[in-house]
Design brief:
679 residues; mainly alpha; 4-stranded mixed sheet; 59% helix
Length: 679
């Protein structure tokens, strides 16, 4: 029997080393797992909610291990504390540095901000020239642009007559003004931007008048002691403030050539009207073109900026106030047809703007113009001494221009602004301030963009998706017949639920967010949370404007019916129910109450006027105090609408305490103030 060879003995040193490696493995694996969890978050590492991020991380870590293996095979493992070891270590650092820079470079210039799909951006075209982002301005233009030839656009006619300077922001830099001017000229194919009509805004005209008055008063040394004391007691007002106040009075009251508004003779106003009448007429012609549309411009770097697209708003606001002044003058001298022409100019402008709004800022501007137009109609009713035939014709003419945005259009611009906001937050697409004390310099901004580039796509795609899911809920709510109650429920159920950071305990929320989202996705989640907060505020503002428009339009319908009733009966009805069938098909509900009627109260003397109002956004009856047409400081002395109204008004008078503020939307008709005076 052959001798059995003894098995080789295990080296004690090797056995100890293996045991040590095993022990190290037991704590290395958990530490790596915790590190991965801190970097990627629980939702990605264990719940696979961001598979692209997990795959990219595996690729990155795997490629680093592979590079390390290749370098070790190529250079070996030198003995420590030698010059060869230092050289090899430097080579490792350089190779890994180049690899990281290459990854950041690719992320910076070749990787999109997010995965463009129906789930993340709602729309998939058009794309920006680089093909990495949605062209927000292009998408808006496709939906809202009238697609007309420049020669058919009345806005082009306005610029050709008034010049380009009234459409450039006075506080903008010369470069930005030049950029806007060149863009407008190119898009509208304008050959001449020099004005062809004489035009001086009445605001500038009044400032000159007040400054000249101040200069005269400053050299007047013959004032009495009482006058000096009175002037010391009064807070001095600047010429600009006095000009604003005078214009406001001229827009709201009937006046004649002997009137004085805040120290300015109406004769001066008449002189301004005569000098600028042609310009106002030219604007009226422009609005009556087949299309009146101000193109949406892009910023200097050709990136969308939906907050700076309403460059024409100031001009329109100024000229509409001037038209309202001319309306009041023509009503004062009894020229109803000229006054109505200017009223229709404002109405058509409001209709055009509401038809082609396309952005938040333009929607708000169109909402303001809508209010101006309805106020101008009420000016005709209150100051025009209309016949029944004129009243019926005015109502018929107004009915042709009642454009209100559909909720799907509102949802579209909400989505567009949502996408634009996330893009801008992610890429720091803000104009740099050269002053380093207040903002980043262009160099610092570019370095910062390189730093945040590693978070593109993988960190932001989930945030884009989450935002669209949230807006899908809102769109579904709109589709089910949006109401004030539904809006309150939406805010209550989803606003807090979608908030990542609780203001009452931010540290606890951030700690949970850190482990759930991980360090890589945490920054985008926090920024997106702030963006959601801003977007929510904008959504609330949009819905508020839409509600206010609906309430005002319904109030105006009732106002027409009340005037027609007065023509037939010599006085206003005791209640709105008396208008039904003959003067109005049915009394519309107050949109702020989900089914309740508007409030209607006669004045103390039956034939003098009325107060008609909606309760407004807060749903509370503030007795007509708030926004609207007419004197808001008077509370009706008597109510014939209901016993409840009578009790509320009686209690109000007995307590002698009026609400300090309110948000009711009203039409107040004071017959004793509505007699036009001839000039």
């Amino acid at each position: 029997m052959p001798n059995e060879t003894n098995p080789p003995k295990i080296n004690d040193t090797q056995s100890s080393q293996q045991k040590l490696e095993l022990k190290r493995l037991w704590w290395i694996i958990p530490s790596y797992l915790v590190s991965a969890m801190m970097l990627l978050g629980i939702e990605t590492l264990f719940m696979f909610q961001n598979i692209p991020l997990l795959a990219a991380t595996i690729f990155l870590v795997g490629s680093i291990i592979l590079i390390e293996k290749l370098l070790t095979r190529l250079f070996g493992r030198p003995k420590p504390r030698t010059w060869k070891a230092v050289r090899i270590a430097l080579i490792h650092v350089v190779i890994f540095g180049i690899y990281i820079v290459m990854i950041v470079f690719v992320m910076r210039y070749y990787v999109p901000t997010t995965a463009i799909s129906e789930k993340t951006t709602y729309i998939t075209k058009p794309l920006t020239p680089d093909g990495l982002e949605i062209d927000v301005i292009g998408a808006i233009t496709e939906r809202f642009s009238p697609k007309c030839k420049p020669a058919e656009n009345g806005f082009r006619y306005v610029i050709e007559r008034f010049g380009i300077k009234y459409f450039l922001g006075g506080n903008d830099s010369p470069d930005l003004q030049k950029d806007i001017s060149n863009t407008i000229i190119k898009q509208l194919e304008i050959s001449n931007i020099e004005p062809t009509v004489t035009y001086q805004p009445i605001y500038d005209y009044f400032i000159e008048r007040f400054e000249s008055i101040e200069s005269i008063e400053s050299i007047d040394q013959d004032k009495s002691h009482e006058q000096n004391i009175a002037q010391e007691d009064q807070k001095p007002r600047s010429p600009k403030t006095r000009a604003d106040d005078a214009i406001s009075l001229l827009c709201k009251k009937s006046w004649n050539a002997n009137s004085v508004m805040d120290g300015v003779s109406v004769t001066d106003t008449i002189h301004w009207l005569e000098a600028n009448g042609e310009a106002l007429d030219e604007f009226g012609k422009a609005v009556r073109f087949p299309v009146y549309y101000a193109p949406i411009l892009t910023s200097q770097d050709n990136t969308p900026n939906l907050w700076n697209t309403c460059y024409e708003y100031t001009f329109h606001q100024v000229i509409v106030r001037e038209l309202r002044i001319r309306i009041m003058y023509n009503l004062g001298v009894g020229d109803f047809e000229k006054a109505k022409y200017d009223v229709m100019t404002i109405i058509k402008l409001a209709d055009r703007q509401m038809r082609y709004f396309g952005t938040y800022t333009r929607f708000f501007a169109a909402g303001s113009m809508f209010h101006y137009s309805r106020d101008a109609v009420l000016d005709l009713i209150c100051f025009g001494n209309l016949t029944k035939q004129q009243l019926e014709q005015l109502q018929l003419d107004l009915h042709q221009y009642r454009t209100m945005p559909e909720f799907d259009d509102l949802m579209f611009i909400i989505r567009m602004h949502n996408i634009d906001s996330l893009y801008r937050f992610n890429s720091l697409r803000f104009d740099p301030d050269p002053d380093p004390n207040y903002n980043l310099t262009p160099f610092e901004l570019e370095i910062t963009k390189w730093g945040i580039s590693v978070f593109k796509y993988f960190a932001w795609t989930p945030e884009f998706t989450k935002q669209q899911v949230r807006l899908d809920r809102l769109e579904k709510l709109f589709g089910n017949g949006f109401s004030r109650k539904q809006w309150a429920v939406f805010n209550e159920q989803y606003e807090k639920k979608d908030r990542l950071i609780d203001p009452e305990d931010p540290f606890y929320q951030l700690l949970i967010l850190f482990f759930w989202k991980g360090l890589y996705q945490m920054h985008s989640a926090v920024i997106s949370d702030f963006a959601t907060k801003y977007i929510d505020s904008d959504i609330t503002s949009i819905i508020s404007v839409r509600y206010k428009m609906e309430a005002l339009e319904r109030l105006l319908d009732i106002a027409f019916a009340l005037e027609l009733y007065r023509h037939d009966h010599g006085q206003y009805p005791a209640s709105l129910e008396e208008l039904v069938e003959k003067y109005i098909e049915k009394i519309p509900d107050d949109p702020y109450t989900d089914g309740k009627p508007f409030h209607y109260d006669l004045e103390l003397q039956p034939n003098t006027g009325y107060l008609l109002y909606s309760v407004g956004a807060n749903g509370n009856d503030d007795n007509g105090i708030g926004w609207g047409y007419g004197d808001c400081n008077k509370i009706p002395e008597q109510s014939t609408n209901s016993e409840t109204n009578n009790k509320n008004i009686t209690d109000q008078k007995q307590s002698n305490k009026l609400p300090k503020s309110g948000d009711d939307i009203r039409i107040r008709r004071l017959r004793d103030e509505h007699v036009p005076r001839g000039g």
